[in-house]
Amino acid sequence: MPDxxxxxxxxxxxxxxxxxxxxxxxxxxAALLSVxxxxxxxxxxxxxxxxxxxxxxxxxxxxxxxxxxxPITLLIVLLWPLFTPVPGTPVGQLGALTFTWESLLGGVAAxxxxxxxxxAFLVWLLTTDQTSMVLGFRRLGLPYTWGVTLAITLRYIxxxxxxxxxxxxxxxxxxxxxxxxxxxxxxxxHLPVLVAVLIQALRAAETLSRxxxxxxxxAPGHTPTLRRPxxxxxxDAVALALIMLTFGGIIAARSGGWV
Length: 259
Description:
The protein is mainly α. It has 2 domains: 1-128 and 230-259, no CATH class; 142-228, no CATH class. It has helices spanning 12-15, 18-34, 38-54, 59-83, 101-125, 130-139, 144-173, 183-189, 191-214, 234-255, and strands spanning 90-94, 97-100. The termini are far apart. The model has no long low-confidence stretch (mean pLDDT 84).
């Protein structure tokens, strides 16, 4: 199955144990969800970009990730002051709603947190091939079938998004108009795209199920073999220790009321 996220390479981040990179994503998530400090969000975003650039991830791929996150980022920044008003210094008014600097800053912080969470997982997904991902899940104690299911699910999310973009572009080239001021009409205009994507997704699911069945996946008494076993070395231990110190320190600082 083609891997739409993984970037092949031999950088240090590619050679790191997949369990360590998963620990980075999980602990970053715990730290980001436990604090309300915009500087922590910016710091985590910067750290993720430094790690990805050190793994020689192209700037075009990082720009593509930002383009994918841009719509939801703008929605959060624009809608947060409407649904989460915060008393403070007023900067504008829309009818009975008064916008404050504090509410706008809250929207920016929420958007930065979401982007930091996304890039923390991209550190794992962009530098970990599917085989290593499944082996990592197995070594963590998950059944082999669970590991394969999780890996396939993670890989198919960007695949479906790319399929949506291709179908949408094709439909627009045939005269489909999706830009409407009325949200209901805009949603209805996307129905032909949704139908086509669902059909393609069902076909892909059938093809995938046949491929797994041909490989005796899930057959009774079938014991998977390991072509490339994982080795947790000194470099992995050092990286894991740094991850725990960094994000564990953030969580501890939050518990102590310092951030």
